[in-house]
Design goal:
By secondary structure, the chain is of the alpha+beta class. It folds into two domains: 125 residues, Gcn5-related N-acetyltransferase (GNAT) (Aminopeptidase), CATH 3.40.630.30; 117 residues, Gcn5-related N-acetyltransferase (GNAT) (Aminopeptidase, 3-Layer(aba) Sandwich). It has nine helices and 13 strands.
């Protein structure tokens, strides 16, 4: 355990320490969930991925957590002011961090503290590489990433548009049936996302974990079949806690055997129409910034970029002592 004195930030003050653990008890899990809710209330979006959220309450041995604790608190265990969590996907660790909004002026110092503890914990594990996923990064995030020799390797656009679209489409879909369509969906997902281990590496457990989430609605999980095969799908998600509620194209893909038929456009519009029928007035999706074909399609469908997220990547164990020159830049 290491300790670091920090400047005062309102009532959140003085001294933080880090705890590295593979498991959280119910009290610590709840504290991190409250921390995430505090950030969401300020930012208007949840600052962690669905995978982070699922892993947070899980007991996976391939998850490592670092908690930032204020020890100057009446609670003997201290108060959780930050959390870093790492999960192993396709042989590489993905780290996400969350910090209480009142401590953001000290982001560079405190994020460095959590990432250094995480680096020390991961260097003895079974991967030499790690990525840091940051939602809406700032120059402070860029500086921290550079200090760990992490370079921006992937940018994700969150694109939004009002609903309904007023656009026509001609495609037949049906609802996903859990337990019946699982294997067929996994095959198409793996084929369509062979280039993306994070999504293409989903297993039956990954799918079932999402199905178990309270937001899951099979009627919003649209399947399109051709020649007695699953040709493509559009999986939607409603963010009911947003004000107003937000409808997301959660995952969308077409089997490579059915490329060139315009199914991507048709499935997108089918998904957006489903959301509009639920009374949702704003739709959104995430897309890799360098996927120019998809970005171009969504632009033609009336989407615009609302937010840019970034993935920084590098080798575990490198730090500011190894990185004398800047290796990161502000995402465009």
């Amino acid at each position: 355990m290491c300790r670091l004195r920090t400047a005062s930030a309102g009532n959140l003050t003085t001294m933080q320490s880090v705890e590295v653990t593979a498991r959280l008890d119910a009290s610590r899990t709840s504290a991190v969930q409250v921390l995430i809710a505090d950030c969401e209330a300020i930012d208007g979006f949840r600052p962690v991925s669905d995978q982070f959220w699922i892993d947070l309450a899980g007991d996976d041995h391939d998850v490592v957590r670092v908690l930032l604790i204020d020890r100057h608190h009446p609670d003997d265990r201290g108060i959780v002011q930050g959390c870093a969590q790492a999960g192993l996907t396709a042989g590489s660790w993905t780290v996400e961090t969350v910090l209480h909004p009142a401590l953001r002026p000290q982001l560079a110092q405190l994020a460095t503290m959590m990432l250094r503890a995480m680096s020390d914990a991961l260097r003895h594990r079974n991967s030499a590489e790690w990525s840091w996923l940051v939602f809406a990064p700032t120059p402070a995030h860029d500086a921290v990433a550079a200090a760990f020799a992490l370079s921006p390797t992937r940018r994700l656009y969150q694109m939004t548009r009002p609903l309904p679209t007023g656009l026509t489409f001609d495609i037949t879909t049906r609802a996903f049936v859990p337990g019946q369509d699982d294997e067929a969906w996994l095959r198409v997902n793996q084929r369509a996302f062979a280039w993306n281990p994070e999504q293409g590496g989903w297993t039956l457990d990954s799918l079932r974990a999402r199905i178990a989430e309270p937001w899951f609605d099979p009627n919003g999980f649209l399947l399109h079949e051709r020649d007695d095969r699953l040709a493509g799908f559009c999986w939607t998600k409603v963010h009911a806690d947003n004000t107003p509620p937000l409808g997301e194209i959660y995952v969308i893909a077409v089997d490579p055997d059915f490329h060139g038929l315009g199914l991507g456009r048709q499935l997108t519009l089918a998904g957006l129409e489903h959301l509009a029928r639920l009374g949702i007035t704003h739709g959104m999706l995430f897309v890799d910034a360098d996927n120019t074909a998809a970005v171009g399609l969504y632009d033609k469908l009336g989407f615009s970029v609302h937010r840019t997220d970034c993935v920084y990547h590098g080798r575990i164990g490198r730090s500011d002592t190894d990185a004398n020159a800047p290796t990161s830049r502000r995402p465009a």
